[in-house]
Amino acid sequence: MARYDLVADLHECVNALEAGLGALRQHIEQQPLLIARVFSLPEIEKGREHDEIERIAVTQHLGKTARDMALTHYCRLFMQHQSEKLSTKAAVRLPGAICIEADGDVHAQITQQVAEINTLKQRLEQLITVESGLPSEARFEFVHQHLRGLITLNAYRSVTLLNAPDSLRFGWANKNIIKNVTRDAVVEQLERSLKANRAQAPWTREQWAEKVQQELEAILALPAGAKLKIKRPVKVQPIARVWRASEKKQVQLACPSPLLVLCRDRTQVPILGELLNYDADNVAWRHKPLAEPLHLIIPRLHLWSDRLA
What we know:
The model has no long low-confidence stretch (mean pLDDT 87). By secondary structure, the protein is α+β, with helices and mostly antiparallel strands. The strands form three sheets. Strands 6, 7, 8, 10, 12 and 13 form a six-stranded mixed beta sheet that branches. A five-stranded mixed beta sheet has the order 3-1-4-9-5, with helices on one face. The chain has seven helices and 13 strands.
């Protein structure tokens, strides 16, 4: 896609997304609020994004205050919507749920609105991460050149809509993202970084090129049969456990944003649990399998190999 067309599509997509979120906000505000409970987490300041998290203090908000916080959270797409001291590299999270009365036509209308919003969010991510043709390290500069202040983490994040479950309870999850990759894919990624010929703080352009070249040589030196994995720790995440008695089934969902729950009337209001403070010293592991021995090859990519020679 030509760069001019891409930029035009980006602006069109973001404008439609802002309009859609604004309309959803107005629609929700017009509906009877049945129950709302959200949990604000400590704000992350610039430069503190990679600090290890040992404890998280949670503050609970209820009722109309919680609903208004949720709607503001849905609509927060740009840095201008938050304090300048806060990091734009760390996602702002507001776990919880808001439950509104929505029967018949209203239920269908809100469901359609949320579907359209989530389609726009997916389209925006596709434009930036795929159709731009840019390597990940070049996207930040591109996005902020054309959509100054866009917080992509917030813009990509979908709105989760639920039909009234029996209960919603909240907790914390610790995990690693593990992805098998091929040598060719890693080599291609590193070669794209070299061709981009960009600097990466705190290195100069020449120093960064030398560093990437060394990484490329390290990959090419591995045995032909070596298995490569990206094993990246994910910071502790708030989750929601959704229980439906009729199905005798519990589903666990990531909960970085308030869940939007539609209830036919007050008889369908679910039980909303509480999110307790997080304390890494008191995490109870249900099952922690023994890890296979791996060797770290490229730290910045969290790339590991099962063999060195």
